[in-house]
TrEMBL record:
Regions crossing the membrane: none
SUPFAM superfamilies xref list: Adenine nucleotide alpha hydrolases-like (SSF52402)
Biological process according to GO: sulfate assimilation
Source organism per UniProt: Comamonas aquatica
Matching InterPro entries: PAPS_reduct_dom, Rossmann-like_a/b/a_fold, SO4_adenylTrfase_ssu, Sulfate_adenylyltrnsfr_sub2
EC numbers: 2.7.7.4
Family the UniProt entry places it in: Belongs to the PAPS reductase family. CysD subfamily.
Domain annotation Phosphoadenosine phosphosulphate reductase: ranges: 39-263
Name of protein: Sulfate adenylyltransferase subunit 2
GO molecular function: ATP binding; sulfate adenylyltransferase (ATP) activity
Region (Disordered): 287-310
Keywords tagged on the record: ATP-binding, Nucleotide-binding, Nucleotidyltransferase, Transferase
């Protein structure tokens, strides 16, 4: 006969799990502050970076985060997200640095093959230019290992050479939570404090901490077209193609990035608790279900990471 587990007991177990993840993240955020001279926290206004920001508040106190927030803007981001990014940074009293792919295009360091080419992959160039401009020696990112295979290969403290490149076969061991943070001039680290979190962990933490998010994460009606198994939002940047039928569906975004490559999923979940339930039943990763740019080998995440991407 199976033993029945009461809901309060399950809640307690869940909180212990989240407490352990939070404690690890806070420890890593403090390690970065102690080990590096010019770190920055990559902040997009998305759910993962907002979770990381909540942990930074707990690590240092509101208004006392010891490194600036850095955003690499493609110029094609959802306005709801960039507006929320600005609001949250101002609310925290944090320094926000924004650098744009469009500025790199104006300098000639980014050249699009055609005007409609997605800019997401070109963020690498703008990011490396920002690193050189501010001489950052560590960038804190919100990537998680469960997102896709290339991210699963990443260390928590991931070394980058003087060209900003990632060498997956030359990573440093991280035994017993000991991190080798030594770098030569021109090198830097990418640090991923929520590496061990999953999408489910993130949503459980959002629910527990009552973290405010951009409204696009929750169910809302939107004009979409079905294309190659994805629900493509109809916007000025992503208009319907010939023969496609525009319909209105209740959708939400599992991940938010460049408009030209980010798709919603059909959903009626209007709260974090409801999204937790949906996530438990999900059979496809959030990137696999929502990202157009991850479908082709030319735009593979591993290649991007080797070239300096997040």
């Amino acid at each position: 006969m199976n033993a029945r587990v009461d809901t309060p007991v399950l809640s307690q177990l869940s909180n212990r799990h989240l407490d352990a993840l939070e404690e690890e993240t806070i420890f890593i955020l403090r390690e970065v502050a102690a080990a590096f001279e010019r770190p920055a926290l990559l902040f997009s206004g998305g759910k993962d970076s907002l979770v990381m920001l909540r942990c930074a508040e707990k690590a240092f106190g509101a208004g006392r985060i010891p490194y600036p927030l850095l955003m690499i803007d493609t110029g094609h981001n959802f306005p709801e997200v960039t507006d929320f990014r600005d609001f949250r940074a101002q609310e925290l009293g944090a320094e926000l640095i924004v650098r744009s792919v469009e500025d790199s295009m104006a300098r000639g360091t980014v050249r699009l093959a055609h005007p409609e080419e997605p800019r997401n992959a070109h963020q690498s160039v703008t990011l490396l230019e920002a690193i050189e401009e501010f001489r950052f020696d560590a960038l804190i990112g919100g990537a998680r290992r469960d997102e896709e295979k290339a991210r699963a290969k990443e260390r928590i403290f991931s070394h980058r050479d003087s060209f900003g490149q990632w060498q997956p076969k030359a990573q440093r061991p991280e035994l017993w939570t000991l991190f080798n943070t030594r770098i030569a001039p021109g090198e830097h680290f990418r640090v991923f404090p929520i590496s061990n979190w999953t999408e489910l962990d993130v949503w459980q933490y959002i629910e527990r901490e009552q973290i405010a998010l951009p409204s696009l994460y929750y169910s809302h009606p939107r004009h979409i077209v079905e294309r190659k198994g994805l629900l493509v939002p109809v916007t000025e940047l992503t208009p319907p193609k010939d023969g496609e039928t525009v319909v209105v569906r209740d959708v939400r975004f599992r991940t938010l990035g460049d408009i030209t490559c980010t798709c919603p999923v059909e959903s009626t979940a209007a709260t974090a608790a409801e999204i937790v339930i949906e996530t438990l039943a999900a059979e496809v990763s959030e990137r696999g279900a929502t990202r157009m740019d991850d479908k082709t080998s030319e735009a593979s995440m591993e290649k991007r990471k080797k070239d300096g991407y997040f």
